[in-house]
Amino acid sequence: MKVLIGPNGDMGLESSIPELSDQFSDVEFLVSTSYVEAAQQVIDVDIMVGWINQEILEAAKNLKWIQSISSGTNYYLDIPGLVDSDILLTSASGTHGACLAESAMGMIFAFTRGIRKCIQSQNTRQWSEHRYIRSNMRELTGSTMGIIGFGASGRALARRAFAFDMRIVAVDMFPSDKPEYVDHLWGIDQLSDLLQTSDYVVIMVPYTDQTKAMIGTEELAEMKTSAMLVIMSRGGIVDQDALSKALKDGHLFAAASDVFSPEPLSTSSDLWDLENMLITPHIAGGTQLEGQYVTQIFFENLKRFVRGDYELKNLVHKKRGF
Predict the structure, then answer these.
(1) Is residue 319 part of a domain?
(2) Helix boundaries (H) for 176-280
(3) Fewer CB within 10 Å, N or C, the chain?
(4) How many other CB atoms are there within 10 angstroms of residue 311's CB atom?
(5) Measuring CA to CA, which residue among 276, 208, 200 is closest to residue 231?
(6) Residue 281, class by beta-carbon neighbours within 10 Å (0-12 exposed, 13-18 middle, 19+ buried)?
(7) Catalytic machinery residues
(8) Residue 183: CATH number of its domain
(9) Alpha helices in 198-239 (DSSP H)
(10) pTM of this prediction?
């Protein structure tokens, strides 16, 4: 059996090969650092972990399983032929829950605690705005956090919001196991209830055919004018033009997003110019432990796979999209 560790950014997954080789003596591990090299090596490989592209998939004549290194798998599923193939796809779902939740809270604090304004004042060596900044600060106690998508990342966010004495409501495509500290866990058909009652709406739901453009002009209009929208999972779930208009019109207190469609966000986008918009360049999932987390999932799945157990952790329903 052959395993190819393909392009994986700066995760350093290849550093795990000595440990993997000790545990799986009958498995041969290969490493490629580029798409071109991976397409040459993948021909008789059984398993691949890392990023792939069309050329790699077409060259993979023996591939049985791909381990994604990201929580979202729409990048993989967009490659023609993968969805209809017999190749198993597993995600890194759960590995980014803590850092996505922390990033979401940080984005909220940037506005509610005046941090964004203070950074701007520091850059211009200005002290004079301190009264204005203070008069516009908020605390989270007693406010409502609405979480769209209650998987690992949504649950991680809920735990943190609860620690700040927030009321929590959530919607999910397949709601189950409501924690005690969550007031309501609804089906996606009650999205309107969440939008109308929440002070902070955070999008954690995966990008699928069902969630594409799920937040548009009508949905934004349902939100409180004092509310903040935070987008963490994937671009394309929120209509960016509608969001820009809502912010310009003062319908929303603020918005923040780590993801856009397309990426990178065009320099001509109005979102760059808005005082009540915070933009980060798809970095919210970053952590010094990212490679370690992905390796742990891959290690567990490889143990199952070599013994013929194909009920892998984070197995993706390819036609469903997650």
Answers:
(1) no
(2) 191-197, 217-222, 240-248
(3) N
(4) 7
(5) 200
(6) exposed
(7) 234, 263, 282
(8) 3.40.50.720
(9) 217-222
(10) 0.90
